[in-house]
Amino acid sequence: MKIVADLQIHSRFARACSKDLSFETLEKYAKIKGTTLLGTGDFQHPIWNKEIKANLKEDENGILWSKTGFPFLWQTEVSLMYSQGGKGRRIHNLIFSPNQDVSDQITEALGKKGRLDYDGRPIFGFSCIELVEMMNSISDKIEIIPAHCMTPWFGLFGSKTGFDSIKECFQEKAKYIHAVETGLSADPGMMRRLSFLDNIQLVSFSDAHSYWPWRLGREVTVFDVKKLSYDEILKAIKTGEGLSETIEVDPSYGKYHVDGHRLCGINLDPKESKKIGEICPKCKKKLTIGVLSRIEQLADRPEGYKAKNAPGFKSVIPLSEIISFTIGTPNPASRKVWEIYHKLIEKFGSEFNVLADAKPEDMTQAVDKQISENIIRIRNGQVKILPGFDGIYGVPVFKPEDEEKLNLLRMKSAEKEKSQIGEEEKNTTKTKQEKTTTKNKKPTLGQKGLLDFAKKN
Fold first, then answer.
1. What does pTM read for this prediction?
2. Domain range for 62
């Protein structure tokens, strides 16, 4: 039984997530994408937890079903911020639960460590080791997977606050970690250069913050199991038996693939970055070290290494973005893009069918030939992608003459951000000066009353 799973989802209660996220919208666009199993996301959040229980019904196999028959699996993500080995650590971990009872126990345990209501991805001050101990005390069927493990910020192996191995992070609890999630800026081809991951499964999920198909299901793991059950999915994650393949975005598309500094528009490959001491040549601040450099630091195998008997993977980018860049419309949500997108979905059933299997001669019956050709080129790895860096997504270049223009377009957003930061700094300085002036003045009776009220409250 083939299962196309995206098991890293967030609710509308998580920071920087769409306020329109619901089980109805998730199901609708998962079907359009071609995803056949979703994580619930954020099951410990009190309001979202109520919505899970109101909208989904659990079966005897630990799978939750919507009223229209779409499956979900108990899943959440936590952010751990703590010190270990003389360094501040920030690590995101996925948690999978076998059923409602265990999920409720997880929620209760986490609730004793901090607030669960302010963010769908709650932040705690305890370590990854303590997280494993806590989960093991509840059930041996709970699975923990480090999320977007190579990402500079919050990745297990990230350049900013990460570790150099699973063992270094989890210590004696490392034996309970069976898989890592690769994240957008890495793929299995890169990860298998790290021999300490030889017995670790590699999974890929979207980390979706909205239900739109250029976010939801942009990375998935394909399982081939006897039946859809939590135990079968868990077995595949632990042993690799039944883990068929992953569908990944091209790692150059990810937001942290190479080193760079977005506010200065600087991005460099590992060799160039190393030559200049990983310092931005414009502002002289330290560059954000990307995934490619981090792989080079940790790898003990050469580039191009092929692991034997490892699950395969496909590299794509979201169909909406292929269309938008082909027709010269920067917004993947534009009406023109949607019209073309839906023509392809109507003909082939799902986005994954289009990206992986549709024949060019069949696609040209529905859309322009250039669009079908670009889909095939992406499928075959024949398109250059300006690499993502320091939080800026990579950009596909379908025409070489467009490269400079596309790079300028994405740099405009960085310039805008830099300008906004400058204004914020000015306003902050002005506010501080005003506060200092106010502090040195003798308050009037009205002001004194307000200050007294502020102190009390």
1. 0.90
2. 2-253
